[in-house]
Design brief:
This protein has about 500 residues and is of the alpha/beta class. The protein is about 40% helix and about 15% strand. The chain has 16 helices and 13 strands. It has an eleven-stranded mixed beta sheet, with helices on both faces. A two-stranded antiparallel ribbon has the order 7-8. Its EC number is 6.3.5.7.
């Protein structure tokens, strides 16, 4: 028996889809090999819940669709879901003791959309507890390990998703991005990931951390793989009050992003050997400051030069409030978390303490026992900034700065550039436990991703190199677009991946 899953022999979802449609292999065969591989790589701790019967039932449904010729772009493709998307049959824990045994009575919209498209889910993926973290060390069920180096973090909070894709356990996975939690783990694990414009994907059934920030996004190897997932996942959902009906004049529905992607690709092809001619790439001076590691800076610079060789033009821009995104985010996100997590009180659902004298003590003990240290820390911060006497000084002020940060991006797009590029993280993946003595040190590592989330913009990470010989770990390039320009971002990333092979590198390869 091969030590790698069958799907890892294919370099993209498109090539695997062709093999499935030609009946060269079945969805059931793919699912069995993927499940076996996931069990063999339990050392990564990427999965929290596998259920062979559930997965094979979905695979059999996919095979029936393939046999009738009614398959979609994702029919039979093995995927998995971050464990903050509720699912009817697999447990949904949010990587927390608070929800250790919870099984939802319904599926999240993202889950149901992908299942309806015929994708075959292996199960639920590990993450930082309630999506709070940047290293996937905050899970109540143990740290996820980076497939490139078992002593390194995979990034967070979607670390299980990125690790599973990087280790070729699945072709793609869902994640969520509140402050960079799709882009950062994608960068640190050497895969691709995209956070779309806020509101383009339904948040219904996605366990909330920061409601004005949370957005679902896919992780895969290739930009075109991301397109297949993102186009399926997006769309208006009346059950989500933050879901958008219209995106820049176009209906928010499957086909919008693919249509935009195809239009950009057609323009690129018409431009001949300079497919990106006319594209203005803004590189913020604030992204190239002294806090950026030399190996990351070199890889990002080389990637920008590759884009220039394809016809793009580099423009120096300024995002003057980049540094302020950290304090702004860590006021707003904990405030929203404090509100969202108040529902876990030991009464309605979730963990309940065994011993207590009255209702107040039951709630206090249940929350103390059920939540981990990082979640408790953010609840306390959020409760403080929302409290009487501090709301105006902290929360209201942070919202004002948030608007200024969004305006900085809009001014850059209006006056100087079409897309913005820079690093995703200041360095390659750190060692597990490095920040044990200073749990807030990870917050500083989000400096390049937080502003995008505060502004609600689309952005993605694609592999662009590796670190120094001392730590030759993956490095990601961040590409930021204006609102609703997901198709443009994916087309630009795809063009880069046609002339580079960073996204094809896998752990263990020479």
């Amino acid at each position: 028996m091969s030590s790698t899953p069958l799907h890892s022999e294919f370099d993209s979802i498109a090539s695997l889809r062709s093999a499935l449609q030609a009946r060269k292999l079945s969805a059931r065969e793919l699912a069995i090999s993927a499940l076996d591989a996931a069990q063999r790589r339990s050392d990564l701790n990427a999965f929290l819940h596998l259920d062979r019967d559930l997965t094979l039932a979905q695979a059999d449904t996919a095979d029936r669709l393939l046999a009738t010729g009614k398959s979609t772009a994702l029919t039979g493709i093995p995927i998995a879901h971050k464990d903050v998307f509720v699912t009817q049959h697999w447990r949904t824990t949010a990587a927390s003791k608070m929800l250790a045994t919870y099984v939802s009575p319904f599926d999240a919209t993202v889950v149901s959309k992908l299942q309806a498209a015929g994708a075959v889910s292996l199960g639920k993926l590990n993450c930082d507890e309630f999506a709070m973290g940047s290293g996937n060390e905050n899970s109540a069920f143990g740290v996820v390990r980076n497939p490139w180096d078992a002593t390194a973090v995979p990034g967070g909070s979607s670390g299980g998703s990125a690790a599973a894709v990087a280790a070729s356990l699945v072709m793609a996975a869902t994640g969520t991005d509140t402050g960079g939690s799709v882009r950062q783990p994608a960068a640190l694990c050497g895969v691709s990931g995209i956070k779309p414009t806020y509101g383009t994907i339904s948040r219904y059934g996605m366990i909330a951390y920061g409601s004005s920030l949370d957005q679902a996004g896919p992780i895969a190897r290739h930009a075109r793989d991301l397109l297949d997932l993102l186009d399926t996942m997006s769309g208006f959902d009346p059950r989500d009050s933050t879901s958008l009906e219209i995106c820049d004049g176009a209906a928010n529905e499957p086909g919008r992003i693919r249509g935009d992607f195809d239009a950009v690709v057609n323009d690129q092809q018409a431009a001949g050997d300079q497919p990106l001619k006319g594209l203005r790439i803004g590189v913020p001076t604030e992204f190239l400051n002294g806090g950026l590691a030399a190996d990351v800076a070199a890889a990002v610079e080389a990637a920008v030069k590759t884009f220039e060789s394809l016809g793009a033009r580099r423009v120096s821009i300024s995002l003057p409030r980049t540094a302020l995104s950290i304090p702004t985010y860590y006021v707003i996100a904990p405030a929203e978390a404090s509100s969202n997590l108040s529902r876990y009180d030991g009464v309605r659902y979730g963990h309940r303490a065994e011993q207590y004298r009255d209702l107040a003590e039951m709630t206090s003990r249940s929350r103390t026992e059920g939540f981990g240290p990082e979640v408790l820390r953010r609840i306390m911060v959020g409760t403080y900034v929302l409290s009487h006497g501090y709301y105006d000084a902290y929360y209201l002020q942070a919202q004002r700065v948030r608007r200024m940060i969004a305006n900085d991006f809009q001014q850059a797009f209006a006056d100087h550039c079409d897309v913005i590029m820079g690093p995703v993280t200041p360095s390659v993946a750190r060692h597990i436990g490095d920040n044990k003595e200073d749990p807030t040190a990870d917050w500083l590592a989000d400096v390049y991703t937080l502003g995008v989330s505060l502004a609600g913009l689309p952005a993605m990470s694609i592999p662009c190199g590796f670190g120094s010989p001392q730590r030759p770990l993956p490095i990601g390039l961040q590409i930021i677009g204006n609102y609703f320009r997901e198709g443009q971002l994916l087309a630009i990333a795809d063009r880069f991946q046609q002339v580079t092979d960073w996204h094809q590198r896998k752990p263990g390869q020479a």
